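Per-residue structure
===
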Amino acid sequence: MTFSPYLDTLLFAVLPYVAMVVFLLGTILRYREQSFTYSSLSSQLLENRHHFWAVVPFHFGIIVVLLGHLIAFLIPRHILLWNSSPLRLYVLEATALAFGLATLIGFLGIIVRRLTDHKVRSVTSRADWIVYTLLLLQFLTGLDTAITYRWGSGWFAALAAPYLWSLVKLSPQIGLITPLPWMVKLHIVNAFVLIAVFPFSRLVHILVVPNHYLWRRRQVVRWYGRPAGAVGEK
């Protein structure tokens, strides 16, 4: 699907650089002036039962999906070589889809938790909901692309990776992207929007906090006073 030439240029030749400039300047300024906000502002102590079952599949899923995108970007020829075998292609596509679904399921759990638990909802800002909406759109368009337009690993390596490299070289080749379906183009544009809003959200914790909690032992929280509603309370 081809938009107007001016819109294509704006979305795929101008927006990427605007997003990166905002990302870099916003990240630096926030770290210099509000370094204490470089945190996910965890709500785990407010409610942990649903938190664990949502955040673990979400983080494992998104890490694998992002890593897959990065590998296809860095070594697209190797991905195409891998996909030359139908069996390897099926394994790669099935694995990517499985982790994509895990990401979506975990993320929906995060949203439900913030909607249903009043303590967690009270610490969720308007900016958080904007970012959640953008992330949900990204996950849905990504899964729709994976299901509707098969063999995404192949055309990503053949089309999207060269386009992204052309951005790095400051010579955007938008002709690689403009013929793609509108859902794929929406997925790409939304990714640039997410990059732009990244410095102004709690997502910045990715830059400074390692995700060691994905494999750490479960922590025990001890109360020095009996919490309201505790078992055995009269």
Summary: The chain has one domain: 5-32+56-214. The CA atoms of residues 219 and 228 lie 21 Å apart.
